[in-house]
Amino acid sequence: MSTFHYSDIFFGSETVNRVSFLRSDSEYIKNSIKHPYSKFIFYISENNHIVPLISKSSKKLLILEFEKLNDYFQKTLKNWSVNNELKSLKVKDTINVVFLGLDQLINFKSISKDSLNNDLDSESKFFSYNGYGGIPYFAINLKNKEDLKMISNDFDQLSAITNYFKLSNLEASLISYGKMYLEWLDKNNFCPGCGSNVIPIDAGTRLLCNSENIDERTQKYKCPVKASTVVNVSFPRTDPVVIAAVTNVKGDKVLLGLNQRRVSTKMYSCLAGFMEPSETIEAAVAREVWEETGVKAQRIHIIMSQPWPFPVNLMIGCIAVVDFNGEDEIINLGNDKELADARWFEVEELSKMINDETYEHPEGIVLPMKDAVAFNLIDMVVNKKYNNFKL
Questions:
Q1: Does pTM surpass 0.70?
Q2: Which BP terms does GO give this entry (predicted)?
């Protein structure tokens, strides 16, 4: 149903080939991480969050090659790769590392070309292994900012969410990818089944319980997680969030809400909420719309999705349609009281806000950032970009 190519969605561009099947190949990881032209992006732990780093001088994503790192840091990465092979890493080590994949320098989607403006990046810099070639990319979370100062002083923190949108989509997408893995590693230190320490394996993309306690009767691990054949908690989590532009059958009105946390900004946006277990996307949209506004949506159209690394969400964008029958469209904020206000906006009014850069709403109301899924959904309704389906 989406009219977007996935590479157009902010945070959603596939900047590298993830080659996920190579993550568990410790020989590949050990050799690729010390390849002279392997590239590393950096994050630091700050106030219980993983904060990406950019170049202070260029304002682009900070990317360093292995050969440009000092001897101490090169040795640290080599030691990490040995411990990764031995399955003896600890999530509380001085660094966490995640193998992101290979940049295969495919035209406009090359993060190396986009971020570094480096015409020298070519296949001559590829690391090749069993028929798979490209420039390896790794994400590193430094627990101590001083460690990075030994490598470079040209860095700054990318703290404010709005600053992410000043980067190219390729840079922001790579940051999002690494950030979600590193957030997960940083916050999951113990096995949920038995409380034992966990070990990062497969180049930082899985967690393994290190308990070796065996049930003498069954001769299986006592830990219910380690004893299971397939265990989802060993893998990173992604939290699905439904978000919907709510309109009427005519498509001339849009229901937007003002979150209690955004009263001062006067930013009205689409209605959103986390999906519940064993709930369809469509049911989650209808539930969230009713819980937040009392409005009853009859038809749900799934439109697009967007990774949202704050911290580990996947936004599932929809358009919800309400029959104006004197009851279903009535707003009632008395359910979960998440919104400070909700109102039906005329499409004509929203069109001015979207299409006329000089227009200022008389109440100072603003819409979400243009690269956010919320803005794109509103824009689709306002500018009638939903030709693939009928309201």
A1: yes
A2: NAD+ catabolic process; NADP+ catabolic process
